[in-house]
């Protein structure tokens, strides 16, 4: 792999600055409200306590999710291709490669823990954008080891803007419950509707089962919908509170 990218792929492993000075600027709930996809970035470097705190969260996500996500700094080639220009990316010099061992539920885990990292980055004053096709997979795939697969990448940095809200479906379009649903379920659905999805397709569905405490999360078929489901499930948990419900056992999922 070219030296510059390889050196910075180990940015988290080589950190020496403690993270204690980088207190989050907002809560996860506030970060979820403020987060919008950003494709154009300034040249400000990610360093010091902000980088250390980001790497701490990345380490936790990798450990809990069985992933090997990597932060790559000061490496512009991954987002300088024609595909990236088509996706309107500009001045992307940092990114997160979302990588894990090949498994049936890898995409959903990648979405769930990748979005957890996205919201942590937002809370630290950084901006992000999920990328599935509009970056150089050939460049980034070199970070993956044997029996591993590159799922997606996250453009990362200090945004030239803070992005803007996009159109969203209504709660009743993506949820179902018998009778009036409890407040926690409604909060979870509203939070899920803030989740980024491929092509803004929002193909996830949340159903409150008859016991009033179990939620089934499903997705329709389509490109990257398993990743999207993982992202939406993390948002749902943040909004509803994990103490309020249990995921229906479906096999192969992140938490259900």
TrEMBL record:
Keyword Ion transport: no
Pfam families: TM1586_NiRdase
Domain Putative nitroreductase TM1586: 28-240
This protein's UniProt keywords: Oxidoreductase
InterPro entries with a match to the protein in the record: Nitroreductase-like, TM1586_NiRdase
Highest rank taxon of the organism: Bacteria
CDD domains hit by this protein: Nitro_FMN_reductase (cd02062)
Any GO molecular function: oxidoreductase activity
UniProt keyword Glycoprotein, yes or no: no
Family label: Belongs to the nitroreductase family.
PANTHER family: NAD(P)H NITROREDUCTASE YDGI-RELATED, NADH DEHYDROGENASE_NAD(P)H NITROREDUCTASE XCC3605-RELATED
Protein name as annotated: Putative nitroreductase TM1586 domain-containing protein
Organism: Gordonibacter urolithinfaciens
């Amino acid at each position: 792999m070219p030296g510059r990218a390889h050196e910075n792929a180990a940015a988290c492993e080589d950190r020496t600055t403690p993270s204690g000075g980088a207190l989050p600027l907002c809560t996860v709930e506030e970060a979820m409200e403020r987060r919008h996809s950003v494709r154009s970035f300034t040249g400000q470097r990610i360093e010091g306590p902000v980088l250390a705190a980001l790497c701490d969260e990345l380490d936790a996500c990798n450990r809990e999710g069985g992933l090997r996500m990597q932060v790559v700094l000061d490496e512009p080639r991954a987002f300088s291709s024609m595909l990236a220009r088509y996706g309107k990316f500009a001045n992307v010099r940092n990114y997160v490669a979302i990588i894990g061992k090949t498994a049936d539920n890898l995409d959903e885990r990648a979405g769930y823990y990748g979005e957890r990292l996205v919201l942590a980055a937002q809370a630290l004053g950084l901006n992000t954008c999920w990328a599935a096709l509009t970056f150089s997979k050939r460049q980034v795939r070199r970070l993956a080891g044997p029996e591993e697969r590159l799922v997606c990448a996250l453009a990362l940095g200090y945004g030239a803007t803070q992005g803007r809200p996009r159109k969203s479906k209504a709660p009743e379009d993506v949820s179902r419950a018998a009778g009036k649903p409890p407040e926690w379920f409604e909060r979870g659905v509203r939070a899920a509707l803030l989740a980024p999805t491929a092509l803004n397709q929002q193909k996830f569905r949340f159903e409150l089962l008859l016991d009033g405490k179990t939620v089934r999360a499903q997705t329709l078929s389509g490109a990257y919908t398993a990743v999207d489901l993982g992202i939406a499930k993390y948002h749902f948990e943040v909004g509803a509170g994990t103490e309020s419900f249990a995921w229906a056992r479906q096999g192969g999922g992140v938490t259900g």
